[in-house]
Amino acid sequence: MVIFSVYVVNKAGGLIYQYDNYVPRAEAEKTFSYPLDLVLKHHDEKVIVSFGQRDGIRGIKFIVLADPRQSGIDALLRKIYEVYSDFALKNPFYSLEMPIRCELFDQNLKSALEVAEKAGNFGAGS
């Protein structure tokens, strides 16, 4: 199974963390003009969006883009919240609402994503 991306959005709606776990090769260079001309193409693989919000940190949203066959997204969101609490919030150099720039957060998030992908789900025992 595939987990494509993880995003953390603050209560003001600003993106404070982005991790692209699976990046397909781009066949052509992408350029943008204003206003953005977006074209969505349907592929045989679908992407689902799961929103997670924990009550301990009001307003912070954890978003996971994953393959629809990926199970255990809710458990993965809980694990991401745990990693955020342990490695971002407890970091004395991190300020709330600011972008997350913590190497331990990155490492533990990648580890959680690897476990979730290999298992096809993310059990409570992990």
From TrEMBL:
Ordered alphabetically, the record's keywords are:
Endoplasmic reticulum, ER-Golgi transport, Golgi apparatus, Transport
Gene3D superfamilies recorded: 3.30.450.70
Signal peptide bounds: none
One of its GO biological process terms is: endoplasmic reticulum to Golgi vesicle-mediated transport
* Top-level lineage group: Eukaryota
Q: Which Pfam families match?
A: Sybindin (PF04099)
GO CC list: endoplasmic reticulum; Golgi apparatus; TRAPP complex
Assembly and binders? Component of the multisubunit TRAPP (transport protein particle) complex, which includes at least TRAPPC2, TRAPPC2L, TRAPPC3, TRAPPC3L, TRAPPC4, TRAPPC5, TRAPPC8, TRAPPC9, TRAPPC10, TRAPPC11 and TRAPPC12. Interacts with SDC2.
Could you tell me what this protein does? Core component of the TRAPP complexes which has a function of guanine nucleotide exchange factor activity for Rab1 GTPase. Plays a role in vesicular transport from endoplasmic reticulum to Golgi and autophagy. May play a role in dendrite postsynaptic membrane trafficking.
Its protein name is Trafficking protein particle complex subunit
Organism this protein belongs to: Sphaeramia orbicularis
